[in-house]
User: Fold this.
Amino acid sequence: MRPQPEDQMPRASQAAVPSPALLAAQQAEAQVARCLEEKHHFLLEAGAGAGKTYSLIEALKQLLKTERNTLRKNNQQIACITYTNAATAVITSRIDGDKLVAVSTIHAFCWSVIRPFQPALRKGLHNIPAWQEKIAEVADLGLRAIEYDLGYRKIMDDVISIHHDDVLTLMATFLPNVKFQSILAGRYPYIFIDEYQDTSSEMMAGIKTHLFPRAGGPLVGLFGDHWQRIYDETCGHVAAETLLEIGKKANFRSATAVVKVLNNLRPELPQAFRDESFIGVADVFHTNSWVGTRRTGAGGGHWKGDLPPEVAHQYLGGCIDSLKASGWDFAPEKTKVLLLTHNGLAAEQGYGELARVFRYNDLFAKKTDDHVAFFADKLEPASVAYQGRRYGEMFDILGDEAPRMSSHSEKDRWSAAMDSLMRLRETGTIGDVVDYLMATGYPRLSEKVYRQEREAQAWHDEAGQEIPEIITRVRGIRARPYSEMIALVKYLDGHTPFATKHSVKGDEFENVLVVLGRGWNQYNFDQFLELSASPANISAEKRDFFERNRNLFYVCCSRPTTRLALLFTQVLSNPSLQVLRAWFGADHVHDVGGGQFPVTNRLD
Assistant:
């Protein structure tokens, strides 16, 4: 989410003459304005840092100014579809909560328009493969109401709960219906889709086929950047005869050194600089001359050509030291170190073994595991507050988990218990800490964690009986040192400079160090660079691989405002090095395989 362009100057004074970036942005926004006046579908392709959200807000404001009376008279709204609740909140605040704009996530929007058609929804479920077995079990759905409150698939006595994906699939089945199209256009004569490239493929196919050609509206405006598509089964770039594509050729985020790299990477959408005197830094470090045996990928892994883990760790440390000497501030709010996988992230920060306990990364990364949620949201922030003698804050954090104290002796017991807990956090396992809380109640465990602990204690392994996943997980969590939980919580709270490459889409930081290696079969940046030497000649079977790698590479390189550095731990071919020299400049591509990192240009 970007502020108004003229409020974004990274350097002291704004010139009397508009910057090249501002002129380019105004040209694109004028084209959007004409599309709205002429009732023409459009797609605003805005590269990273171009100020996409500013353009979206300006388009909404234009419609609110010119169409307000008509919308009110016809009891209509402008639909503005986003993909996160955070984006919804930002857009709503920027239009002062105007009720003529229905800002919502795509799931919420789709559900709001299809929910009234219950018979059609029940019929549609029969065509979704994931539902066919469940429906067969009950024989007939009857008149059960379909709801989207729980977010998972379940048939109950009088209600059917549907999954998030079902909402979009069902919406796609409604779009061919002419009557539904008319109802949709009658309620929402204008539909804007933010981050259009993340729309599901089936949903966008329905929009292209049934809404773009429709004479009676709605007018569809797409805002986004298909080079920032990094999720599977999403539409990516959209093209249609009735859709005008508008390129916003501006960058209000990054220094010129970074923008030049982006323009070399993406010459078809060159971005104008905001301030040509704001130079910045963009450097590449590779380890080709390292002498030793690289990883082979044996055992089904995807590490072939990468440095051994301990060596990669040493090079990352050396790189960080050299960047600090070059003026980088590695405070978490200033700098991000982007790694590809959660496993690599966990190993660097000291919770690698704990991460392996979880079958799915989202269990800890999104705090959907109850143990992680309790420690991350309750115990750890309360412990930090206690150590800082911020007792009121501590009790506010604990809420219902804090004991009730009515005497001085109870306060003494609380203080002694917390002191013991602080020591146990440093020396014990997670199980030790849990058992201590269960025994003392200072503070209390959450009900969910308490129940899972009791279930794990009551479970008795029997031959031939499969152990439930939750029991295995609780046992695994209990066995790890509590220091690993502390490290995990620091990462989750953003108190470290580390992040995965996927997790920073849409963010920006002063400095960004990207670590590029192996570890995932979907990504091989050496092969990506080789293919980049001649993108027009990429075969059809390699196109998806190329775009997946290109988009993640582009997202990473476009995050910094000031300094960008890439560290390759995998070996690179000569064609790959040539591509990097073309993009970054030969003087900015450094072989550090011998262990010597240069101190690059300081900006202070």
